[in-house]
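Morning!

As promised:
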Amino acid sequence: MNTLYVTTQGAYLSKEGETVLVSVEGVKRLQIPVHTLGGIVCFGRVMCSPYLMGFCAENQIGMSFLTEYGRFLARVQGPVSGNVLLRREQYRRADASEFSIAITRFILTGKICNARSVLQRALRDHSDKISHQEVEQAVTTLGNALKRIESINNLDELRGVEGETARSYFNVFDQLITHQKDDFYFRGRNRRPPLDNVNCMLSFLYTLLLHDVRSALEVVGLDPAVGFLHRDRPGRPGLALDMMEEFRAFLADRLVLSLINLGQVKAKGFTKAETRAVMMSDDTRKEVIVAYQKRKQDEILHPFIGEKVAIGILFHIQALLLARYLRGDLDGYPPFIWR
Amino acid sequence: MMVLVSYDVATTDEGGQRRLRRVAKMCKNYGQRVQYSVFECLVDPAQWTLLRNKLEKEIDPEKDSLRYYFLGANWQKRVEHVGAKPTFDQEGPLII
């Protein structure tokens, strides 16, 4: 399922028959049958007709509105749909601490495993360019954390482990940047606004990822707002953030690294505002979107269902597996683990 | 899979204009217009059955004709475009 990204300012999206019509200043630019789309993401000053919004809601096409620079603004949601029983079960489990702990443990296992694989892969591929000791140290820390979470029965402690692992992972992240080191460096995660080129790309990709994960959850009828690791907070898509954890390192972080290391992005594609906030130029943003979309089309062997699937479909598979676990059809939630 | 649908609808007789309009609209809902009465439709087998059914109900088999060319999943290799009105790849990145 493809995603339509509209970055042209002043574009107008409307519904014609069963197609999405994109026009700019009254001139038709694209007309595409709605069934080929899985989502629409609008950047900045893009207008949509209410009928298109309704139609997308009906056909389970996620619609997100972001600022020109990729900060999330709003999402369009149609009438409540999906399975009430499933959603109720989700709420019940979110309220019961033992279940929340179990699900959080599954999610963290996925997250830490995948972060560790990213580091291990770097050790293997670029052993000559990175400081072994530090990265190996981080790999060990993550490995130990994996063993530790098995026996933790407290949500806050689990979150503590998550924080620790994230810290040791991001501590060595800069090592994985092997080219253009003067322009692209990582001195820790910062956001709202991102203060360097790397954080700028990371934040942007996380937003794109969140849109996709969230749509997948809605398609299977789960409530993206009620999470387990991320607790309820108004306006925060807790469950979508939970499910994103297993994909961050594997999809977004790795993409940032390859964009930099292969020279697909350059320092001149970024600008710094007076507030020290770093922004991408239009061309760079397009480059990042194209890379992300291409990556989603790559096929990968899913370790749990044992089938070859496109990476873009992974979100839907994971959402389905989570729904099955909540329904009691599975004894556990198998997170996506990259090998 | 990709199916190329082309049609010829007799517009001279009564109701011809109406049939032509409706056939075009159906094709538009499922695919991309590449020439006046030629559409490239990216569909799965279920969607194709639906579209085909709708089209065949609409036309007058005495006067109109429909032709389908099945290009399969590896259709990219089988299509070339020369000249005006370039098309877009429905499966590629869609950025406007």
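The two ends of chain A are 24 Å apart (CA to CA).

Hope this helps with the figure draft.
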